[in-house]
Amino acid sequence: MIKQVYLFWFLVISLTIQGQELRNRFGDVYYTADMHKTKYNAPESTPYLNEVFTPAKINNINETKMVRFDAFEDRVEIMVSENKVVILEDKQPYSIKLLDGSGKLYETKSYYDEKGNTKASFFEVLALNENYSVYLKEKMKFSKAKKAQGYEASKPAMFKKQKATHYITDFKGESDQLIKIPTKVKYFIEFFPGHSKSLKMFIKDNKLKIDKSQDLMKIFDFYFDTN
């Protein structure tokens, strides 16, 4: 009986220490893994880039972690146990490399939103160069369910992926914040005063689109190779 009691308290203490270590490292246990299904009542869609948790390497932590990216709430989740989730603190710098064969790398970074406020979130790393780094941001939009009205049929609650946006490091070295890249050429070339004409011609002659990742990096490579 005494051995059983001892074993019980040993397990309790071990789990408590393990849980505390995880909370100190990443954050607090926040909710169950399937909570989004009842919270939003959108069974035909998902707020996640990958609803199934994916193995990943986080910073220099030895053990593999299971992660997924909530593109609506704008956060990274880590599976603590079978049905418990930890929210990664986005104010801390993290590097997350997926181990699913995709080779994708994510980082938590600070950035300026449309109103000029500083925020933090996760971004997919597209290019890390000496002169510049390019990041991709994917977001989900949530539409509430609508009841049938007149000739309009009812619509279920739904998550829909928005058009991805690109961000770049401040290659002038004036700030650590990521800067959103405009989607229109006339605003994009304003990033390069004194070189806007040559860049505009390069984009036009090569039929490049600044909302395409590979084309965007060709433009930056051209700029830094010629300046």
* Secondary structure: helix percent: 10-25%
Secondary-structure-derived class: alpha+beta
> Which whole number gives the mean pLDDT?
82
Which band does the percent of strand residues land in?
25-35%
Number of structural domains: 2
* Strand line-up across the major sheet: 1-5-4-3-2-6-7-8-9-12-13
Series of secondary-structure elements, N-terminal to C-terminal? HEHEEEEEEEEEEEEHHH
What gross morphology would you assign?
A: globular
Q: Radius of gyration, rounded?
A: 22 Å
Tally the helices. Answer: 5
Number of strands: 13
Distance between the termini: 79 Å
Report on the biggest sheet. 11 strands, antiparallel
Low-confidence stretches: 1-24
Description:
The chain is of the alpha+beta class and 227 residues long. The protein has 2 domains: 155 residues, no CATH class; 46 residues, no CATH class. The strands form 2 sheets. It has an 11-stranded antiparallel beta sheet. The chain has a two-stranded antiparallel ribbon with strand order 10-11. It is globular and about 55 Å long. The protein starts with a helix and ends with a helix.
